[in-house]
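G., the chain you wanted modeled:
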Amino acid sequence: MVSELTHGLGPTGVFLGTFTPKLDDKGRLILPAKFRGRLASGFVATRGLDRCVFLFPVDEFMQVHDRLRKAPMENKQARDYLRNFLGHAQDDVPDKQGRILLSAPLRTYASLTRDVAVVGMGARVEVWDAETWENYLADGEDAYAATAADLFGDM
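Predicted structure as tokens:
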């Protein structure tokens, strides 16, 4: 039996792994079975960073929103970020088959056509164009190793 804490994500309770489903002609994506439990009661999709789409479980999105709303309205960078982050957000619930519809503006922003990579990122999911994801991984390999050394040292 799956515990309330893990929501079908396995023993860690976080989104993990990379999956490669396909978008259908209507822009729908079948969520990986491993992620459906945590997103079944609802999610928020919005512009991510690096040209991907972020998918947040509603409770996680509310935590992010609570942090963002504390930014001063007088700060132009904060206003610009909020406009992009919230202005392009959509809330929804997956259908019975675990499908979600990503809006046309989000698909355009992330260059999502048919082949996508759905990547577990702990508290959120990222949806990438598959080729963009592969290029991102290849381009960042040296930086990944250097960052690990900086963050973890001699572990």
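The helical segments are 33-39, 58-68, 76-87, 104-109, 130-139, 141-152.

Shout if anything looks off.
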